[in-house]
């Protein structure tokens, strides 16, 4: 505790002038967000903005960022954690299936992308531990299977969330997301499996996507030694924030493409651990501030920077990563996650995918943030194609606000809506309900949390499909141009 206080003091003391300026600006209603944010929100976002993209922000190498953000903080409090690691299947069919879909969905203009080997499925099961206090340590005497058994005894619903964490594809670890996954387990009454996918730039596209598909298959068809029983697809919800939202939608689009390529009327199959297995669609997707356009090209990237803490593309002072063993790669490439020519591939930037027919229901929760437009375009496209979409947009809130501003009314409402969607798509499908989840949208006002109905099909954006395509092509060109200068753009995701 003393070390934590000392660290916090070292961070905040040099920012005393900024803190004083923010305090006065908010108290005197001089800032444009004074009427929308409480003081805690204003101070948090101002400090984060200064640390991440301010003119005095210190560039940090990717190697150092990964070292700092992938540490296991340990397990304590109202949470059960059971770690899982499963061997790579002996056959190569899953990998070949992914590569086949990438080729089918490409334009042919993409440079040769990486062809990673399959990796063991790693991650952790998370459940809510009701009787513990925030300081209760993890039982040291229990094995991982025993922890899983204890976790399952406290679940009260069939909801299983396959969670893909954020971090711009190159940061963070499931262990750093336990405050999120344990909250989701508590709110839904179910369980969460957080995937430890391989990080870029060391493991570029499609390594993380392959890991996500392998994790989904592991839930459906547990290999020997896994503690869990097979989980029906209609009990699984893909969940993710930011870059994890990208992987969720890319994984769904991958599954849809595999279904499109199958014999009409049949369920596609894939060989997994020695058997031909059906590859069904999940019950739904639950997305929090999803990153859907890796080219960072739509208008909200600049227009809503005033509500966000992330550096916009125009923040050139925050654009360079110091050289380290991880970056730049050899030979160099334009983007951390993929070759520049692949930026608009539908499995890299799901916003580029046009066909979402037969998709399960999708939930969006986000602020008026820099990524807002890409979510709005995709939500509208899904709804127009007959997909059930639940849209929750929070006025003046920043990227992943529920995680960054815990304890606020907006955060509590986000988790409540997220959990309700997960329960609805699972329980309605399990029960054979006739109603199902229906498309609906709400804009939630700051502070008061009053709800305004919005039309998801026509009321979210004025951007046409042609305009979106043009802007994304320009975004790719901008990023590819950076390679000539030996730079890479700062990532807008945490």
In short:
This protein is α/β, with parallel strands linked by helices. The chain has 2 domains: 2-60, no CATH class; 75-485, Alpha/Beta hydrolase fold, catalytic domain (Rossmann fold), CATH 3.40.50.1820. 36% of the residues lie in helices and 13% in strands.
Overview of this structure, please?
Keywords: Hydrolase. It comes from Westerdykella ornata. This is Alpha/beta hydrolase fold-3 domain-containing protein. The chain has 14 helices and 12 strands. With 494 residues, it is α/β, with parallel strands linked by helices. It folds into 2 domains: 2-60, no CATH class; 75-485, Rossmann fold. The strands form 2 sheets. Strands 1-2-4-3-5-8-9-10-11-12 form a 10-stranded mixed beta sheet, sandwiched between helices. Strands 6-7 form a two-stranded antiparallel sheet. It is globular, with a radius of gyration of 22 Å. The chain starts with a helix and ends in a 9-residue tail after the last helix.
Topology (SSEs and partners):
Layout: H1 2-12, H2 16-27, H3 39-53, H4 62-69, E1 79-86, H5 93-105, E2 121-128, H6 144-153, E3 160-164, H7 178-188, E4 191-195, H8 207-220, E5 236-241, H9 243-261, E6 269-272, E7 275-278, E8 284-288, H10 300-303, E9 362-367, H11 372-384, E10 389-394, H12 401-404, H13 409-430, E11 440-444, E12 451-454, H14 465-485
Parallel strand pairs: 3-4, 3-5, 5-8, 8-9, 9-10, 10-11
Antiparallel strand pairs: 1-2, 2-4, 6-7, 11-12
Helix pairs in contact: 2-3, 7-13, 8-9
Domain Alpha/beta hydrolase fold-3: 161-402
Pfam families: Abhydrolase_3
Organism: Westerdykella ornata
């Amino acid at each position: 505790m003393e070390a934590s206080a000392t660290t916090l003091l070292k961070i905040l003391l040099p920012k005393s002038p900024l803190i004083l300026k923010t305090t006065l600006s908010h108290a005197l209603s001089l800032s444009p967000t004074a009427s929308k944010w409480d003081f805690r929100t204003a101070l948090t976002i101002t400090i984060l903005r200064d640390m991440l993209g301010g003119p005095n922000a210190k560039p940090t190498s990717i190697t150092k960022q990964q070292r700092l953000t992938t540490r296991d903080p340990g397990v304590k409090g109202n949470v059960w954690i059971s770690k899982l690691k499963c061997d790579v299947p002996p056959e190569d069919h899953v990998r070949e299936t992914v590569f086949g879909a990438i080729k089918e969905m490409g334009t042919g203009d993409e440079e040769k992308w990486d062809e990673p080997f399959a990796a063991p499925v790693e991650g952790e099961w998370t459940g809510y531990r009701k009787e513990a206090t925030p300081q209760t340590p993890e039982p040291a005497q229990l094995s991982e299977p025993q922890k899983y058994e204890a976790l399952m005894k406290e679940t009260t619903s069939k909801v299983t969330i396959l969670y893909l964490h954020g971090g711009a594809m190159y940061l963070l670890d499931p262990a750093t997301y336990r405050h999120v996954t344990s909250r989701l387990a508590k709110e839904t009454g179910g369980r969460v499996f957080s995937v430890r996918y391989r990080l870029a730039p060391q493991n570029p596209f499609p390594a993380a996507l392959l890991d996500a598909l392998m994790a989904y298959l592991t839930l459906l068809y547990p290999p020997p030694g896994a503690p869990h029983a097979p989980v029906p697809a209609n009990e699984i919800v893909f969940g993710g924030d930011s870059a994890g939202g990208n992987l969720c939608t890319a994984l769904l689009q991958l599954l849809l493409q595999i279904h499109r390529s199958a014999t009409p009327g049949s369920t596609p199959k894939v060989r997994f651990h020695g058997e031909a297995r059906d590859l069904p669609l999940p019950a739904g997707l639950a997305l929090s501030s999803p990153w859907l356009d890796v080219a960072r090209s739509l208008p909200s990237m600049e227009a809503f920077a005033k509500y966000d803490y992330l550096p916009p593309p125009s923040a050139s002072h925050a654009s360079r990563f110091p050289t380290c063993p991880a970056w730049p790669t050899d030979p160099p490439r334009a983007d951390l996650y993929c070759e520049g020519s692949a930026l608009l591939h539908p499995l890299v930037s799901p916003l580029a995918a046009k066909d979402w027919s037969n998709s399960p229901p999708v939930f969006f929760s986000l602020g008026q943030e820099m990524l807002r437009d890409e979510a709005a375009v995709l939500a509208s496209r899904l709804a127009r194609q007959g997909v059930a979409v639940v849209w929750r947009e929070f006025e003046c809130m920043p990227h992943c606000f529920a995680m960054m501003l815990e304890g606020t009314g907006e955060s509590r409402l986000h988790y409540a809506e997220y959990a309700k969607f997960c329960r609805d798509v699972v329980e309605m499908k399990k029960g054979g309900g006739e109603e199902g989840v229906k498309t609906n949208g709400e804009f939630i006002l700051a502070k008061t949390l009053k709800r305004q109905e919005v039309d998801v099909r026509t009321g979210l954006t004025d951007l046409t499909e042609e305009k979106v395509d043009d802007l994304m092509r320009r975004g790719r060109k901008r990023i590819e141009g950076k390679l000539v200068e030996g730079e890479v753009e700062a990532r807008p995701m945490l």
